[in-house]
Amino acid sequence: MPVLSDMKFPKEINTFCPHCKKHTLHTVSIYKKGRERASSWGARRQAGRKRGYGGQKYPELIRTAKTTKKATLRLKCKECNKEIMREGLRLRKAEIVE
After folding, report:
1. Which of 43, 46, 10 is closest to 25 using CA atoms?
2. 1 band by pLDDT with thresholds 50, 70 and 90
């Protein structure tokens, strides 16, 4: 499958809302992962594994296989204000236009 370099998404789309159980207008935004908690259990466990001699527990990834990420869209219903996530296409850059 070819990788798309740039794709524009509309600000609003009419799509099915599973909460309203009908097609409604949704506002579109691109999902971005938040900052991870430094004191989460996984982070504390990894820090413990890296302590002392021996260093990294697993080999650190040097060469990545993929050059793109899948853009995840956040769709917010204008009627019930519930959000649904929709996995987008694999592309280099996603942007929202009028």
Report:
1. 10
2. low
Structure tokens at 18: 């599973």
Count of domains in the chain? Answer: 1
93 domain-assigned: yes
29 vs 31: CA distance, rounded Å: 6
Instruction: Give a yes or no: residue 57 inside a domain.
Output: no
CA 45 to chain centre: 25
Q: Is the pTM of this model over 0.90?
A: no
Indicate the DSSP class of residue 9: E
- Give tens-digit pLDDT for 13-44: 999 999 999 999 999 999 999 999 999 999 99
Phi–psi pair at 54, nearest 5 degrees: 110, -30
Structural domain harbouring 29: 4-52+64-97
**Domain CATH code at residue 15:** 3.10.450.80
| Residue 80, pLDDT above cutoff 90 | yes
